[in-house]
């Protein structure tokens, strides 16, 4: 990282950002062309979990090439200044790479859907209709590398 003063090296803070952020941006490569999607997710046991339909462009890409990059951020705030070009942004951010795999086992789907739902609703004890589970695929990203960056904190 060019600016060592902005690097987050504290694993606890990196985990906190991954736990608290609302959206992860998942980057893939589609026949040499970048492709990026924003997704709701949960961070559990060092992995990212996202739910998806069982088909579509993202799934097709990942079946061909499961290498991904991801980025998420929290505590983002625009810092306005009177002088032009002096504005800045405060943020805590995490970037990483990993391998995506699919979870199709019903019990594992329910477990990861519970984690995603609890994260985003603050509630627990969900029931999922069988038809919905059949149409749902869980994307698991096993993180291989991760870097944190901060500004204004």
What does this structure look like?
By secondary structure, the protein is an alpha+beta fold. It has a single domain (4-151), classed as Roll (Pnp Oxidase, Chain A), CATH 2.30.110. 25% of the residues lie in helices and 48% in strands. It contains 4 helices and 8 strands; from the N terminus they run βαββββαββααβ. The protein has helices spanning 11-20, 57-64, 106-121, 130-134, and strands at 7-8, 23-30, 33-40, 42-44, 47-53, 67-79, 88-103, 136-151. Strands 1, 2, 3, 4, 5, 6, 7 and 8 form an 8-stranded antiparallel β-sheet that branches. β6 and β7 form a beta hairpin. The longest helix has 16 residues, at 106-121. The radius of gyration is 17 Å and the shape is globular. 20% of the residues are buried. The model has no long low-confidence stretch (mean pLDDT 93).
Keyword list:
single chain; 153 residues; alpha+beta; Pnp Oxidase, Chain A; 8-stranded antiparallel sheet; 25% helix; globular
What topology emerges from the helices and strands here?
Elements: E1 7-8, H1 11-20, E2 23-30, E3 33-40, E4 42-44, E5 47-53, H2 57-64, E6 67-79, E7 88-103, H3 106-121, H4 130-134, E8 136-151
Antiparallel strand pairs: 1-8, 2-3, 2-6, 4-5, 5-8, 6-7, 7-8
Regions with little confidence, pLDDT below 50 for 5+ residues: none
Q: Oligomer, anyone?
A: single chain
Class from helix and strand fractions: alpha+beta
CATH superfamily: Electron Transport, Fmn-binding Protein, Chain A
Helix-strand topology string: EHEEEEHEEHHE
Q: What would the average pLDDT be, to the nearest integer?
A: 93
* Total domain units: 1
């Amino acid at each position: 990282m060019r600016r060592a003063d902005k690097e987050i090296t504290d694993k606890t803070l990196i985990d906190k950002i991954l736990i608290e952020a609302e959206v992860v941006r998942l980057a893939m490569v589609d026949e040499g062309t970048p492709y990026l999607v924003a997704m709701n997710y949960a961070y559990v046991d060092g992995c990212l979990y996202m739910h998806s339909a069982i088909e579509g462009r993202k799934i097709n890409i990942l079946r061909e090439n499961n290498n991904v990059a991801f980025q998420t951020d929290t505590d983002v705030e625009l810092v306005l200044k009177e002088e032009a070009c002096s504005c800045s942004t405060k943020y805590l951010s995490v970037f990483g790479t990993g391998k995506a795999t699919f979870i199709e086992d019903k019990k594992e789907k329910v477990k990861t859907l519970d984690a995603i739902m609890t994260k985003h609703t603050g509630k627990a004890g969900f029931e999922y209709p069988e038809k919905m589970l059949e149409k749902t695929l869980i994307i698991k990203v096993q993180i291989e590398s991760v870097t944190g960056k901060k500004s204004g904190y």
